[in-house]
Amino acid sequence: MSNGDDETTNHIEKEYIRVANKNGWPGMYQKVCRECSQYPYTFNEARRLRNKPLNRYRDVNPYDHSRIILKRYDLDYINANIVRLSGHPDAQADSIMTLFMPEFVVEMYETSLQQSL
């Protein structure tokens, strides 16, 4: 890890601690929900009856346009999106953002391999 990586990690940890000390996570979650509701994106696959049990939370779903589609299973759904990181000069790669359920760890591992991330 380069010195810049250490500084970024240190900044992220400090921000996490600052929010946690103020018990600010519920408010931060509500803010993100409000902001995301303004986007024109859909999450129809997450709402399909067969996919609902695969969502850890009923109100945190992957957008259809950027969701990961599993290729090696009968069911192609997992609660995960490819997200382009921004706001930092070293953020050049895509990342997987997910809230998968622990019993689907094998599928998440397969997703990582499939996406080569």
From TrEMBL:
Q: Where in the cell is it found?
A: Endomembrane system
Keyword terms of this UniProt record:
Hydrolase, Membrane, Phosphoprotein, Protein phosphatase
Which InterPro entries does this entry report, sorted A to Z? NR_tyrosine_phosphatase (IPR051985), Prot-tyrosine_phosphatase-like (IPR029021), PTP_cat (IPR000242)
Entry EC number(s): 3.1.3.48
Name the SUPFAM superfamilies for this protein: (Phosphotyrosine protein) phosphatases II (SSF52799)
Gene3D superfamilies recorded: Protein tyrosine phosphatase superfamily
Q: What is this protein called?
A: protein-tyrosine-phosphatase
Look up and give the organism this protein is from.
Plutella xylostella
